[in-house]
Design goal:
homodimer; 564 residues; alpha+beta; seven-stranded antiparallel β-sheet; five-stranded antiparallel β-sheet; 38% helix
Chain lengths: 564, 564
């Protein structure tokens, strides 16, 4: 693929990902130092990754429909945000058309875009956002808020048939930690701040947000709130819905302000209406979040369980115990195999296995093809961490698991944000991969897992391909947990139709087995077909009522979450 | 007051409180064994409680407007729920007109009721609720759901000018724990179950809900959800918004169903719209709640702090620490004095002080008029409780506090649900008392407390009476806490106008000092005038939009929370 950041963009102080894929230019997945990778992919989906990838498309060959924004309207926007802060340039519009779902990547790489935003604006502050919103409302234009662009459920694209002017409102310049109330552990942060930028500003003052989703490096606080994000340490810090206490949301003529109150009994929770609203109720400009003192100690330990059932049962037992770890994660046997295959030869878990652990486990009676890798995180004072480790260690042992030390955990910590790059590597070579996650009560997790794997395999059979699906438990709660699935297959001519069969089978299995259609990625367009099955027809009707009444002119990202 | 349960009621298998006050007939506050009480009340509000109370009003003298329900409509309701399950009797209608706020009690005791429900129905199950809702929607009638009747914000009364037929839908017969998913810690419970009834059904199987609001004995699960209740052990178990995972809500033609999912990313949170909706979005018939194994150990310990500032600082430090108690509570010096005065001579904290603790503390340099009583609760395994006690003990010591053992905690546990009876005792003798609570960030708590006390005292001055206000911190969160105020004064002719001055001053002080207008009692009519100041005009507009669109015919408890 071409090096897109070299191409002309209207502004140079807002970072964007590659127009055709994840992350920054010049960074990508490679497997030179991972000897297990090529055989693994060959085994899993029948792809030879040592074959050279075909030549990428040049950005010059991408067909971008012309902007329909009138010169007058563009000038009006320029009067609000200043010249150079409004762009109708092809690259800006392409970058702002999609997020990074498999569907998005396949379409943008096809070089034919049906509909892009007509204009991209980069306001500097809330007052400028108010100006844009009011101008859009007056002109009957559409506003789609844009954070880091990492969305994977189709929340960012204009409706193909939208005849009105579509504005992509990029919040990238609203990236400051405004204030920290150190007594309360509350920080006011602008919505456009990317994970690393806001965390750096917090850490410099001794604080952490504790919110680390897989997309962390390329997603924003406002985006997390708009999609109900959840981070890897949610067991300790909570989901973003718990973390985000105060909100400022620009709506036509006024700002909706939810003050940072620890808990309130003030009717239906408006804060919880904004969280997850994906731009449909206004533009989130500022979030007051709970922050925590950076912990005295932080450690992620690796464990192995003889099989998936034992791993799940151990996570469940931990959630029922007095122990309070920050991360509870266990991979199924297939994902465990994947982790081994993507490890460097001499490091981490692969190294451990090479170094004779495999023999030890076999001697112990394990079938190493069935074993499951787990990471448990601990944070707090030295004595707190020591006690949690002890409590967890007992539970692991009771479930037949063993501790394998800090090494793999350190590696997990270092590499945890790199996985999305792998998808582009595979897609370059004709293999489609994406994720789907759910949450369900503990009693339903194992049947749900089995049902999802069976459904995906039936879907692979239906389209006549060799597919792969693997999963891990990623977040634990009192009454259940999140299961996070990754699936891949070598696609044919019509990659999206094949993807729809597989993705659809997985989502329907979530519903049928008692899970939700989305634990932390939102609804957008991708999950909307299953919404009424998840929250009931009446639930979806109430939600639609809210959108209809709160945004009667359909100014704000219409058609996302619910069809109308 | 007359013994109302002796009066004719349509049904005998649903418990109701006294028509004129709190709790069950034959139970009331008395001070025969509390020598400190009379002098305390004399000091606080200038009332001599040894004077005999005036004769109560007979129920026969209460003026109840006639029911406007047509005979045909009553018969239609009887066809749905069965004969004997529909009542237009005076007592049923009076009992269902109000909750138990000071405003409610003063009005019902005045014997002149402006508007009562026209008919009270007692459905047996969700199908019957659906029948009633559909019949009401067809007939353009109004439905007000009724649980235990303990509401104190005016959520239960019909609008005085309502010209349509008003149905009070009493959920008292939906009182069963339907099912416990023991693997997930989730219980399906009918919405009309009273606290003691549902807890008994859970405890019999080894589980607890862990939700113990002051109103516990006379409030229902559905009512807790409808008003965003919070219990005394919320530090461990969460507020009802956290506890209630699944919901069934009857709306015209269909049931809105939110399945019990531990966490989901499915757009604006419809569950969080139903929680706190006070009947405005439909009738809650069933709630799936998180339940916990009854703990191995449960203990409430009492502590004393030299002053309020130290007590607050200690609670704050506990919330920042690795300790995880189930209750964190500290009273200001005035409420501490009240606790001493209402204790029996030989028991609890009063006994301790009598037994020389006062001398010890004075010798230690304390001004015992300023000291503050605190209760901290611990639950879990023996070792967990021991560790939490140790961690908390260190923090208490660091803030100059001392532990005073289990005795007062046991007494607190036994007497915690009795306080509401005191209000009737005072009202019988011409003194008005009620409560107002808020939540705010830790940094604002002390200034807020000072501002509220000053505002209340200015209000007392304004109406020219000797008033009393006291408070305790009742629930702690990461970023703040709930302050729970109780106020009292000997009222004049126009008790409600005087009450409005005091209550209004307190509510406005909450807003001005950065707190919310309600932490766990809801909005109803009582707090509605401050809603837009709390969640902003735009926030209130969005909420109103939701009500307008989701209930366009204003079937469900119209005019509560928001004015329209």
């Amino acid at each position: 693929m071409t090096d897109a950041t070299q191409l002309t963009s209207a502004i140079d102080d807002v970072k964007h990902m590659k127009w055709w894929g994840w992350g920054v230019d010049g960074v990508g997945f490679h497997h030179h130092d991972k000897p297990g990778f090529a055989p693994f992919v060959q085994m899993a989906v029948g792809l030879d990754v040592n074959e050279p990838a075909p030549d990428p498309m040049s950005f010059d060959d991408v067909e971008v429909p012309a902007s329909t924004a009138s010169g007058e309207f563009v000038q009006q926007l320029e009067r609000i945000v200043g010249e150079g802060r409004v762009s109708t340039a092809r690259l800006d519009r392409v970058v702002h058309t999609f997020g990074k779902s498999l569907r998005d990547l396949v379409r943008v790489r096809s070089g034919r875009l049906e509909r892009t935003p007509d204009v991209v604006v980069y306001p500097a502050d809330e007052a400028e956002v108010q100006g844009i919103v009011d101008a859009a409302a007056d002109a009957d234009a559409v506003i789609i808020p844009f954070g880091g662009g990492s969305n994977i459920v189709g929340s960012l694209e204009p409706h193909a048939q939208e005849s009105r002017t579509v504005i992509s409102l990029d919040l990238g310049r609203l990236n400051r930690v405004i204030d920290i109330d150190e007594e309360s552990g509350l920080a006011r942060i602008q919505a456009g701040a990317l994970g690393p930028d806001l965390e750096a500003q917090l850490v410099a003052r001794g604080w952490t947000l504790g919110h680390f989703p897989d997309s962390f490096t390329h997603s924003t606080l406002g985006g997390w709130v708009a999609t109900r994000s959840s981070g890897m340490q949610s067991d300790k810090y909570g989901d973003i819905a718990d973390i985000a206490r105060g909100l400022r949301v620009v709506r036509p003529g006024a700002v909706l302000v939810i003050r940072a109150i620890p808990s309130a009994s003030t009717g239906p929770n408006v804060r919880e209406m904004i969280v997850g609203s994906e731009g449909r109720l206004g533009v989130i400009t500022e979030v007051t979040v709970q922050v925590h003192r950076t912990p005295q100690k932080r450690v992620v330990l690796a464990y192995l369980f003889p099989n998936w059932e034992a791993g799940l049962a151990a996570m469940h037992a931990i959630s029922e115990s007095d122990a309070a770890p920050s991360i509870t994660r266990v991979s199924d046997a297939r994902e465990t195999g994947f982790s081994f295959a993507t490890g460097k030869e001499s490091k981490g878990i692969s190294g451990l296995v090479t170094k004779g652990l495999g023999k030890y486990l076999t001697a112990r009676g394990w079938d190493t093809d069935k074993m499951c890798l787990s990471f448990i995180g601990y944070e707090g004072s030295d004595s707190h961490v020591a006690r949690q480790q002890k409590l967890v260690g007992r539970i692991v042992k009771k479930h037949g698991g063993i501790g394998v030390g800090k090494g793999p955990g350190v590696l997990y910590d270092q590499k945890k944000f790199d996985t999305p790059y792998l998808r582009d590597f595979l897609l370059d070579r004709g293999a489609a991969a994406d994720v789907s996650e759910t949450a369900a009560p503990w009693s339903r997790l194992l049947p749900l897992y089995n049902e999802v794997v069976a459904s995906a395999n039936r879907a692979f059979d239906e389209i006549g391909i060799k597919g792969w699906i693997m999963a891990h438990l990623s977040h634990s709660y009192h009454s259940g947990a999140c299961l996070y699935f990754t699936f891949a297959f070598v696609h044919g001519e019509n990659a999206l139709a094949q993807y729809d069969v597989v993705k659809g089978a997985i989502q329907q299995a979530f519903i049928d087995a008692g899970g939700t259609i989305s634990h932390h990625h939102g609804v957008g367009l991708e999950h909307a077909p299953w919404l009424a099955q998840d929250i009931s027809v009446e639930g979806a009707t109430v939600m639609q009522s809210l959108f209809d009444a709160a945004d009667p002119n359909r100014t704000f990202n219409p058609g996302k979450i619910t069809a109308r």
